[in-house]
Amino acid sequence: MNKKPLVMLVAGLFATNVFADNLELNPIVVTATRSAVNIFDAPASVDMVDQSVIENAGAGMILSESINRIAGVTAESRNQFAQDPQISIRGFGSRSSFGVSGIRLYVDGIPLTMPDGIGQPGNIDFETVKSIEVLKGPFATMYGNGAGGVISLTTKTPPAGNEVSASFLAGSYGTTKESAQATGTVSGVGYMLNESNFNTDGYRQHSAAHKKQSTAEFTFDLGADTHVTILADYMKMEAQDPLGLGGAGTATTLDSAGHSSYSSSIPMFSSNQQAVPLAALAANTRVSRENTQAGINLEHIINENNSINLVMYAGHRNNAQFLSTVANTGAGKESTISRDFVGTDINWTNRGEVFSKSYTLTSGISYSYMSDDRMDFSATNGSVSAAQHASPNRNETDNSMNFDEYAQAKYSLLNNLDLNAGVRNIHSIMSFNPNIRTGITTGSAQFSNTTPSVGFLWKFREDTNVYANFGKGFQTPNSIQMAYKDSGTAQIPSASTGGGPNIGLSGSNSNNYEVGIKSFLNQSTRLNLALFRVVTNKEIAVDFGGSYASYFNVPVQTSRNGLELSLDGKLEHNFNVYAAYTYMDSKYDGSYISKNIVLGNTIPGTFKNQLYGELSWSRPDLGFTTAIESVNNSKTYANDLNTAYAGGYSIVNIRAGFKQEISNWRFSEYARVDNVFDRDYISAVRINDSNGEFYESGAGRNYLVGLSASYRF
After folding, report:
1. Which residues sit opposite 181 in a β-bridge?
2. Helix, strand, coil proportions of the chain in percent (round to 5)?
């Protein structure tokens, strides 16, 4: 890892005397802790990125663009849209191959995480998002199954008047994005209607994508005490999958040292890192997704001490994915899912005093259900013949149900000392029901667990808060992890080869510890420091990573020990500095040689050191802003054996923009250059890939330019 950015961070910590004392960092209210609270007084590690960061982060298409700046968060772009970005919080979710697992996702309080624990960040329409909050640590476990962290997005508030806007963006690799939005308030009803269309040829060969999104939001009051938000969205996407690089059959020479076998550990690609494995071309690997979801969030104030919140949502999702099963032969499969899902959450909040000390108590119940019609067909050269369609490898209906009860409370023991505590009972059922006799047996599994959390917030001084928390976490296997068992033969799972479902898979348990400090070094400089430890038993890992992957519970303990440090400050002459550093030692605390696990090995997909730094400057009188960003990651292992890894890297990005207001018109122009020095690097890894195709290369120097116009009336 390039150590020069560390100098910038250290210099910032010891140069606080240059910060202007007459500038104040605005307090931010967050809702990720269930009860609205100033972020400085939140009894946990909570970070937030606002609308300006989201707008300046990139094309506004993937979640990793906006949250890679947060300490403790790993958000790696795969530079292709067939797979969701790799997102993990303190190591939770680092193994996920599909969607986001181990982290809960919400938009306006409406879940984007399914009952089995898989979230779909690709459904998010970032043109409508106002802020993103990230809750880390023990109190995230209060959000249920797989809550190693919480990412909560809030949409923009419709203005009192009416406004229409349009924007256009273009960039490298044939990338374009057009969007149009209408928002405002009519007869007391706030509305926001947004439509966007995205196209790219892709940085790598065979990585073109097209994505269309539509969002409608309505807000209104039912009387003086009831507020309603209705949110509906539609997403349709087609994307080619270039697969990973590094294994045999890759159509390129990667570097002088080879890098063509499972045991490779060479971190960088040659000039042809845009190449694609022959298997992706032969099998025409790709994905097609369509998602429709609608939800309602109702908040009702009963009286000055009591309020209730009701969330209901429902949706449908279609997913069809073509994968390669035998490298370079054109043999593959089409895996399809037709999903219906519903859910609801209702909670009651009571506020009052006991022994002249204030308290807040929130209790509620949560229910979610999904039903998947899953089919799997053999494919040849990226298509399914009539004969193959008539003989599916898999045809079943899978159901997942989750029902939880929870309570969370805060009590002020002293004027400067708060006690925070909570408990959640988790109940999950998953069932697998064949629709035809394919040799795959039926089965079901139930999971139950209670996850308590407790912590203290000490208001040490007016400008300094200290907190300490402990919580237990629980993560059930998701539907993908339970689909197959003992499929190490790389054949289509069946009664003879060892088929699914993997009913014997257990949930994983974790103990989460956290201590932290939040301090204003002066009126315009905020410092956050957190130390954490996570100990996990029965962690779920890849048993065999082929096209029909299977999973098992790691029989040895794993641990993640780390430090998070962030600095946010306003300097004189309109300069701002921001830096976020994460150190995390994630490892196996024992050996299990038959599964390639050795005592002290690093958990794949995690980074020991990560540093994000940003220096920005503005000229308010000209409406001009500019910034330079530095992204630095140490190496990350791609397999449990730790014989394959992606090397550390440092890249620099720059951005600039203008904004103007002329009468009722507002205009903005925007330009961004990523990877300014055109570094070769690996942006993401595919954990335990059976073909050794672990690596997804980062894009070289690339640019985006955009402009937008809006009219208020």
Report:
1. 165, 194
2. 10, 55, 35
Q: Give me the pLDDT at residue 5, please.
A: 38
Q: Is 187 helix (H, G, I), strand (E, B) or coil?
A: coil
According to DSSP, the β-strands at 162-171 and 73-76 are unpaired
Range of the structural domain that residue 654 is part of: 4-712
Which residue is listed with tokens 């994968």? 323
d(CA 173, CA 151) in angstroms, rounded, equals 30
Counting the structural domains of the chain, the total is 1
Residue 596 carries which side chain, given as an amino acid letter? N
Nearest 5°: phi and psi at 500?
Answer: -90, 180
Q: For 383-395, write each residue's pLDDT tens digit.
A: 999 999 998 888 8
Tell me the pairing of strands 149-155 and 104-107: parallel
What are 204's two structure tokens? 């790598």
Q: What is the DSSP string of 72-128?
A: TEEEE--SSSSS--EEEETTBTTT-SSSEESSEEEETTEE-B-TTSEE-GGG--GGG
Question: Which letter does DSSP use for residue 63 in this model?
Answer: T
Instruction: Decide: residue 588, CB within 10 A, 0-12 exposed, 13-18 middle, 19+ buried.
Output: buried
> Please, are residues 124 and 63 in contact by the beta-carbon 8 Å criterion?
yes
* CATH code of 97's domain: 2.40.170.20
Closest CA to 133 of 54, 191, 61: 54
In the block, tokens 């009336």 appear at: 713
What's the pTM? Answer: 0.90
- % of the chain exceeding 90 in pLDDT: 61
Place of tokens 């402009």: 707
Q: Which residues lie below 8 Å from residue 202, measured CB to CB, with a gap of 6+?
A: 79, 80, 173, 208, 209, 240, 242
557: confidence class by pLDDT, cuts 50, 70, 90: very high
Task: Find where tokens 């002066």 sit.
Answer: 522
What values do phi and psi take at 309, rounded to 5? -135, 125
Closest listed residue to residue 453, CA positions, set 113, 43, 109: 43
pLDDT tens-place string over residues 8-63? 333 333 333 333 333 345 566 676 566 677 888 888 999 999 988 998 888 888 88
**What are the b/e assignments for 207-232, b being 16+ CB within 10 Å?**
bbbebebbbbbbbeeeeeeebbbbbb
Q: What is the DSSP letter of 10?
A: H
Q: Is the pLDDT of residue 94 over 50?
A: yes
Residues in the chain: 713
HSE toward the beta carbon, residue 421, CA cutoff 13 A: 5
Q: H-helix or E-strand containing 9?
A: helix 4-14
Give the CA angle between residues 106, 110, 115 to the nearest 5°.
Answer: 80
